[in-house]
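Thread: assembly with ligand

MN 10:42: here's the input set. Chains plus the small molecule as SMILES. Want everything predicted jointly, not piecewise.
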Amino acid sequence: MSRHRLLLKNGRVVDGTGNPWFHADVAIDDGRVARIGRMDDAEADRVIDVANRVVAPGFIDIHSHCDFILPLADQAEFLRHFAAQGITTLVVGNCGYAPAPINPGTADLMQAYTAFIKPRDLEWHWRTFGEYLGYLEDNGVYLNTVPLAAHGALRIAVMGFDARSPNDEEQGEMERLLAACLESGAFGLSCGLIYAPGMFATTDELAKLANVLQPHDRLFTFHVRGSSETLMSASAEVVEVAKRGGVRVQHSHLEAFGKRFWPQVEGTLELHERARSEGVDHGFDVIPYTAANTTFLAILPPWSLDGGVPKLLDRLADPETRARIKHDVEHAIPHWPTWDAGGWPHNLVEATGWANTWIMWVESERNKSCEGKSLARLAEETGKDPFDVAADLILDEKGQVTALYFGVSGDRDEEWALRQILQHPRAAIETDAFSLGRGRPHPALYGSFPKVLGQYVREERLMTLEEAVRRMTSLSAGRFGLKDRGLLREGYAADITVFDPEAVWDNASYLEPESPPSGIDYVLVNGHVVVERGEPDVSALAGHVLRAA
Ligand SMILES: [Zn+2]
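BT 11:07: finished. Tokens for the full assembly:
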């Protein structure tokens, strides 16, 4: 009889398949699940009694933005919030944002592009995607990391922020860079088609990139072009790229912005079913909230972002051009296709209104009082027009502003559209969060997974506990082809989350997001205890950088 290093005793095993829980002890050795069954205390060096607790596979956050935190020596201080909610694996490189490749000629544009999700003084110790992953491996990561290549980064490396299609040579160069990312182990390619420069790409450009993914059988993930007027066309475009490129696709954070577009959620779910019935491997995921956070520049029309942030600032400083931008922000109706001259994928302010647009972070001290306030309120306080508040803030902060947009698939009083998505058996759970320790984070950073387990499983019974765990674990593992994670099985990596199903709860709100959840008791990453009695341990970097093979 060999002694095990660690034994989780008396728990209810929810194994990630969706099957009902069963009583078993779980033994862990060398970072792996050694045995699931009944064992004696004497068989282990350490025994943790987890009676009345659920023992589940560690949660996989299928969509986060931690790429720029992972290179930091003190990353655990930021990533502890993910661990505290039971997350053991982070998928990064989403929505077209990744830290590589870097072309020295356009490095300044990459800096401006990523400023809102990047620590101020981050040093870029790499150029290629492979070098970035190598840097993470050499220095260690707090949580397991599943990296994606990012269309925005590829495009900036080849053609900066130009608002046009690539010529043949440029297209070929993007394809070559993508192939290099895949050879280094990227699990797929993400695009962010509401952001410049991703928004300048045509379906054609994307389909050609899909052709590069195809022989590697890697996933193509989409932050679609529009989630209001153009939601249905934008969702259909994902299916078209899948068909033309012969690839698996993922509609990232499926959502409808603005009350009058909530009914379209049903159409997107039907489209998903139809695609799958036609043999397209189409998936999607969901942020379990009715607000989304991103760069404040996402409110601006594409033409104003042509050439990048410095050009935008010139335009906002010129009264005539500024008036044109104001007119578009307040009146332009998005139409399809969005990449035509004057086209616009997604007018956030027109869809949700200034009262639903809140400032979450500004770079400088002098504007800190704006954080946590809506544009409508700031306009009232300053006696200025809301657009002028927005434009002046962008100018003063050189574009380094993030915002929270409310009215996403629901609001405080009505959540039916969000519930429609959440109830769907193929909706994977995510945070979409990033943590930089500045400004006000989205509450998902602290509570996304506990919110689903507490509110939607225990209180509202939208789905069973086993089903929720499946959609936090094996469903996401399957999308990326992770071979030995996402299930609690002998021989699998010992990524394990232990929680109290009667107590699990998110305590984070929009105004007071920085509250850790309740009921997540233990979290193990590769067999290493990173959360003990609800408290994250930040002393070790126990994660693995995973590479697709
Ligand atoms: Zn996104």
